[in-house]
């Protein structure tokens, strides 16, 4: 049994009290009892998720939501594990397993690192490491990507004579960059990225509209690429680590005895690329080939991965499936799905017109935003999403920012700020968690690696966050205004 610290026990008691007895706490004459209960479920749930964990606490939040008269267990159950976004994420985890199980992901990482361009010089090598991390993390979860690259970086450090605890800048920059680039790439697509999908579903909960895959990628991908380039330039010209030892790097030793692409790898990579194209096609065709949009828009995001997973199970090489179903399903973190479902249903409850929390929040917070220009409101949202996500979990940050932005963009700023633009800015921003271990698992892994101190990680992460905010506002916002 997990042993809780004293402060966690206090948080559990407070959190459960707020979740189950919040309707009896007087808040405002403009908020119903169910509205108060929903509001305090959000507060109590966020406290427990942030300070206790995301295991049984998700079930407690689901139970509390089910006790709200306007919802009930049937609606809550359908809105959690029955949510299409949760199902989509499950399929993404299963499909991504094909790249790991067949060795495609590791081969791509090594290929980028040992290619001809990488061998041209130290900073060419570093640039290709960054590119390979970005490419893999844009289609895999950031945690999976960091576990692929950590052994590769450790091998590089050891072969160049670096030792833990010596305070060398080069290993520190590379370990921090692994987490930072992973998180930047995670913001670029919703593929296997739970937090990005939470942004998608939160937008749907508040507005009833869908955030299109292609539409989001057209904004987020340029932001991600330019933020990664900006971070590379900061590493080279601001941190300026000594890279002279890289001239001794044995690229062939890293490459090892990898032979040509196996048949399994070719099949897995081809099917995965086809799925990605089908995901992108509806949103992109709307702008590049409008006549095809009505047809392509009928392709639900869950269709391609379902077909792909079935094909990978039945296509056999040397008598064995390319990806057995049991192996695919073993890659699914069900605790994460349950947490995501609880968070999404909480967003649905907050946006429920019969409960009235969104209207109350809009009226209450709107008083403080009177006189604030639409552009400045977006600036504050972008900055707040990045700053908060570096000190608390990105899911909690998403819930807070969406609870503020969605009601105001449909009331005080109605016609002035598109809710979809606000949602995209928040969804990108909550992924830019670079500075502290509690922010996100990849940063926690980097902090615990022994190659970088907490203070240096915070400094690097804070600068990367500032770069991200600047790119979001200078590049992302204008693109969003064009395509949304």
Shape: globular
Counting helices, strands and paired strands, the structural category is mainly alpha
- Report the order of strands and helices: HHHHHHHHHHHHHHHEEHHHHHHHH
Number of helices: 23
Q: How many angstroms does the end-to-end distance come to?
A: 49 Å
Measured by DSSP, the beta-strand proportion falls in under 5%
Average pLDDT score: 88
Placed side by side, the strands forming the largest sheet appear as 1-2
Low-confidence blocks of residues: none
Total beta strands: 2
Helix content: over 70%
Described by strand count, sense and barrel closure, the largest sheet is: 2 strands, antiparallel
Q: If you compute it from the alpha carbons, what radius of gyration comes out, rounded to the nearest whole angstrom?
A: 23 Å
Entry keywords:
484 residues, mainly alpha, 70% helix
Short description:
The protein is an all-alpha fold and 484 residues long. It has helices at 6-21, 33-51, 56-66, 72-79, 84-101, 104-114, 122-137, 142-159, 169-186, 194-207, 213-239, 251-255, 263-288, 293-296, 303-314, 325-329, 334-351, 357-369, 374-389, 394-409, 419-430, 441-447, 454-483, and strands spanning 316-317, 320-321.
